What does this fold into?
Amino acid sequence: MTTQSDSGKAEDFDNIDIHEPNFVLDPYPTYEHLRAECPVVHSEHYGGFWLLTRYEDVRSAALDWQTYTSSVAGVTAIPIITPRTEPMLPIELDPPRHSRYRALMSPVFAKQRIAVMQPRIEAIAGRLVDRLLAQGGGDLVADYAAPLTVETLAEFTNLPKADAPRWVAWIQRMFDVTQPEDSARASAEMGSYIDELIAERRRTPGDDFISLLMESKVEGQRLTDKEIHSFCTVVFGAGFETTADGISVSLYYLAEHPDDQRRLAARPELVPTAVEEFLRYVSPVQIFGRNAAHDVEVHGRTIGQGDVVALAFGSANHDPTLFPEPERCILDRAPNRHLTFGAGVHLCLGAPVARMEMEVTLQEFAGRVPSFKLAPGEGITWKKRGDRRGLARLPVVIDRTTN
It folds into this structure.
């Protein structure tokens, strides 16, 4: 069954392509139109999926894992990066198994550990800003966001820092939807690297993330190498890519809004609320896939059992029913109940680390960088996936004369 919109049938809005270049460049006009006219839309692209766009629908689906299950391997990314039958742990499991596996990662991202690690992350950010100041600017993706997030990941997992550039290259290639063959090669290369790390830790255990997993048990059984491999793949991807994207687009906004640069510099107490607003405004994870566990009707449209259901977090975070003037970035916005990290049992475990990295970034730039703007004559480059939102290139210049 379908419902009529003011301008036509629901099917008139179907077949959206979330990776179409114009959508990738600016998805928000499309989201606005869909929220108003057809909040549940179907697409035949990428194997077929439904897209939920309103805040309440997205939040309800995120909370309702019994209806919108995560326990179907491979549907969290649209399209699937690498076809597989085994779940990525723990994000492609539901309770109670999800809870048991998720608990293994909790010590890595515990609040007490974050507090201990923060001075190290501040030192990394300070060193990167030192270099930007010495150069008079640079590419805030290659020279700041990427190295900050990947070195932070290395600190938290105690994995080899020297390999960090390889992680960055693999993840960037894996998420390039325009080059599927190279994306598959990058996935295979990173998979081989992870297997080598696991084999090395089997021979020589240490105090790193992989060794921790090797000593862990679920239901009395130690993890297999395949399960450890799955954990590592998730941590490498989620621990680097999405945080770097959130930082890069936040800095892009500030580069184009000098008044807000000055405001943060004059009122550093705004940094925590500014972080939350950038998380909402940027929404680095725009779309995340689930799977319908049974038939469900939403706004008069029937989603069939087994259908892929995409939760448009980016659209939900710009829904005017929750966020007045959603297309404005308001640094002291409150309340700010964004869904950037999801909701419910699948709330992102690494959210406190991402918040900390963004907070450190805003403090460093507000306190030490007099003023920065987009480099004249040089363009920015957006990444090419519509289910993520981030920059591949952000050249800026620093104006030392401005206070």
Notes: The domain at 4-398 is CATH 1.10.630.10 (Cytochrome p450). The radius of gyration is 21 Å. Confidence is low (pLDDT under 50) at residues 1-7.
